[in-house]
UniProtKB/TrEMBL annotation:
Subcellular location: Cytoplasmic vesicle, Clathrin-coated vesicle membrane; Golgi apparatus membrane; Prevacuolar compartment membrane
Leader sequence residues: 1-27
Domain EGF-like: 504-518
A Pfam family: PA
CDD domains: EGF_CA (cd00054), PA_VSR (cd02125)
Bilayer topology: Single-pass type I membrane protein
Record-linked PROSITE patterns: EGF_2 (PS01186), EGF_CA (PS01187)
InterPro entries with a match to the protein in the record: cEGF (IPR026823), EGF (IPR000742), EGF-like_Ca-bd_dom (IPR001881), EGF_Ca-bd_CS (IPR018097), PA_dom_sf (IPR046450), PA_domain (IPR003137), VSR_TRX (IPR056858)
UniProt protein name: Vacuolar-sorting receptor 3-like
GO molecular function: calcium ion binding
Bilayer-crossing regions: 572-594
């Protein structure tokens, strides 16, 4: 490219930057904040603002406690702390370490990366001038910075200079400075539906940020479609465009980067006006993707946008020279979308008039309400608050889930992708039954909670911290309901009672609390059995045995001994009486049958005799012909 071309391109890009700056002045850039609460020492105790860094993974919906450390060397964090022999790794049982570093001399992200490698759980960057807080963004990534930016996993925040001085003074005085970073109110959570939007671009040749954006869209597509299909979220894609200054609308640079006579522009993908794709190609594809969403939304299937965008990225990349209308149309047809409606929505890019779709996008870039202007690409907005942090599936899902009113979160918010893994450390301080491998600790995107679980349909009840007891039917099947049990000589005894109360009660023959122990009762020693003079008592585990001397026989129900002969005589007389009673009952029954049949026979005979001499009511009268008079 010649010097004159480079000069013209530089001037043109300068005008675009001034235009962007002008828009930011007209609107406003809102710094997304989280709350930083100092717990100790008392003289600086209170709540302070901090600006969330636009990299790493903020714990949206949760909080993180820690102890502040201000290193004696490498205080700006621009060098590797390991080279200075400094480590911020927390000892077992100690609170996580928050490293305080000074602003200046290197990128914010590099400071956080060096602290993370040294074991820090979070980083606080102290501003070096008295000013309003700003958002710490990632640099335009080159090969070296891209390697660490994408691997930053800890949260970071910028704090005001005056507050930082208070922290430094307390740390230098030997005070233990305990703080708590709180993201629970960073995203509003008014109801059971979350509205979020993604400001993106179809350009896939802008380096690290484009690669990160494409990976995020592919990874997040599944979760996004589940949330949208379930009615849990309302998603809207947006695309940033700029307009060309009026004085340059007829220039070659403007014509190559803009459509509709300079009204809607995008930077050249390769930053080279003489080769490759042009900015206007990006604007047209952005417009097509907006219209794909609008047409899909009209068919009540807005989630198809995610399919189109991911398929277009895979099938129509710039590197393979497939970033064009023909490839895009093929993707649209494969998804069953109406191509004519999409083309009608796009309009004529050469017309000297406003495009209603892109005009609406430019208006939407200006901040409204609590949301500031959108000037960072990509930008995610959740419940009208701009997301700050790494654009990564788990981090974004956590931020979206934080936007639901508590207890209304969908199941996807309780998946492994958003777990905080606090239960891995000392079981999160919750109740645990190691023998049965049951715990009350549950990881959620808001942090760990201690709730008694439901296992195989059995509900455990308790505070979740010190105790959880199985209750209801079936509880004895799970680790014997937490009650005592033992087996000896082939006999098993249990203190578990399968009822709603869930109490442990020692079985007959035992005494104790029913939970930790049930001791065998010595019935013989405590004189609870075998108390007759002829009885001989022998205690067994869980029971006892009684025997009688000589030919006597022990009767357990009466706790007495009787002779075997007397028992045999008594049994013989009992058999005789049973036979006599049986015969008497049989004879009585036979007599009753005889009497009934005899009476029935006599009744029938009497009726027959009487029928010969007098008519009965049930018989018809017999006509008498003797008295008939004949003429």
């Amino acid at each position: 490219m010649g010097v004159s071309k480079i000069w013209k391109a530089t001037i043109f890009l300068g005008f675009l930057w001034l235009n962007l700056l002008f828009q930011s002045v007209v609107g406003r850039f809102v710094v997304e904040k989280n709350s930083l609460r100092v717990v100790s020492p008392d003289d600086i105790k209170g709540t302070y603002d901090s600006a969330i860094g636009n990299f790493g993974i903020p714990q949206y919906g949760g909080s993180l406690p820690g102890t502040v450390v201000y290193p004696k060397g490498n205080q700006k964090g621009c060098r590797n702390f390991d080279d200075s022999g400094i480590s911020f790794k927390s000892k077992s049982g100690a609170m996580p370490t928050f490293v305080l570093v000074d602003r200046g001399d290197c990128f914010f992200a590099l400071k956080v990366w060096n602290a993370q490698n040294a074991g820090a759980a979070a980083v606080l960057v102290a501003d070096d001038v008295d000013e309003r807080l700003i958002t710490m963004d990632t640099p335009e990534a080159d090969g070296s910075s891209a390697k660490y930016i994408e691997n930053i996993t800890i949260p970071s925040a910028l704090i005001e200079k005056s507050f930082a001085e208070k922290l430094k003074k307390a740390v230098s005085a030997g005070e233990m400075v305990n703080v708590n970073l709180d993201w629970r109110e960073a995203v509003p959570h008014p109801d059971d539906r979350v509205e979020y939007e993604l400001w993106t671009s179809s350009n896939d040749e802008c380096g690290f940020k484009c690669d990160m954006l494409m990976k995020y869209v592919k990874d997040f597509k599944g979760a996004a479609q589940i949330l949208e299909k379930g009615g849990y979220t309302q998603f809207t894609p947006h695309y940033i465009t700029w307009y060309c200054p009026q004085a340059f609308t007829v220039s070659k640079q403007c014509k190559s980067q803009c459509i509709n006579h300079g009204r809607y522009c995008a930077p050249d993908p390769e930053q080279d006006f003489s080769t490759g794709y042009e900015g206007k190609d990006v604007v047209i594809e952005n417009l097509r993707q907006l219209c794909v969403f609008k047409v899909a939304n009209e068919t009540k299937k807005p989630w198809v946008w995610w399919d189109y965008v991911t398929d277009f990225q895979i099938r129509c990349p710039m590197k393979e020279k497939k970033y064009n209308k023909e490839c895009a149309d093929a993707v649209i047809k494969s998804l069953g979308l109406d191509l004519r409606k999409i083309e009608k929505c796009m309009g004529d890019p050469n017309a000297d008039e406003d495009n209603p779709v892109l005009k609406e996008e430019q208006n939407a870039q200006v901040g409204k309400g609590t949301r500031g202007d959108v000037t960072i690409l990509p930008t995610l907005v959740v419940n009208n608050r701009q997301y700050r942090g790494k654009l990564e599936k788990g981090a974004v899902l956590k931020a979206i889930c934080a936007g639901f009113e508590e207890t209304t979160e969908p199941a996807v918010c309780l998946s492994d992708d958003v777990e905080t893994n606090e239960c891995r450390d000392n079981n999160g301080g919750c109740w645990q039954d190691k023998a049965a491998n049951i715990t009350a600790c549950k990881d959620t995107f808001r942090g760990r909670v201690c709730e008694c679980p439901v296992v195989d349909g059995v509900q455990f009840k308790g505070d979740g911290y010190s105790s959880c007891t199985a209750s209801g039917p079936g509880r004895c099947k799970l680790n014997n309901g937490g009650c005592w049990h033992d087996t000896r000589d082939g006999h098993t005894y249990s203190a578990c009672v399968d009822n709603e109360e869930g109490k442990c009660s020692c079985p007959p023959g035992f005494k104790g609390d029913g939970v930790k122990s049930c001791d065998d009762i010595d019935e013989c020693k405590e004189k609870k059995a075998c108390q007759c003079p002829e009885c001989s008592c022998k205690n067994t585990w869980g029971s006892y045995e009684c025997s009688c001397s000589g030919d006597l026989l022990y009767i357990r129900d009466h706790d007495t001994c009787i002779s075997k002969r007397a028992r045999e005589v008594k049994s013989a007389w009992a058999a005789v009486w049973a036979i006599l009673i049986g015969l008497a009952m049989a004879g009585g029954g036979a007599y009753l049958v005889y009497k009934y049949r005899l009476r029935s026979y006599m009744d029938s005979e009497i009726r027959a005799i009487m029928a010969q001499y007098m008519p009965l009511d049930s018989q018809n009268e017999v006509p008498n012909h003797v008295s008939d008079e004949r003429a």
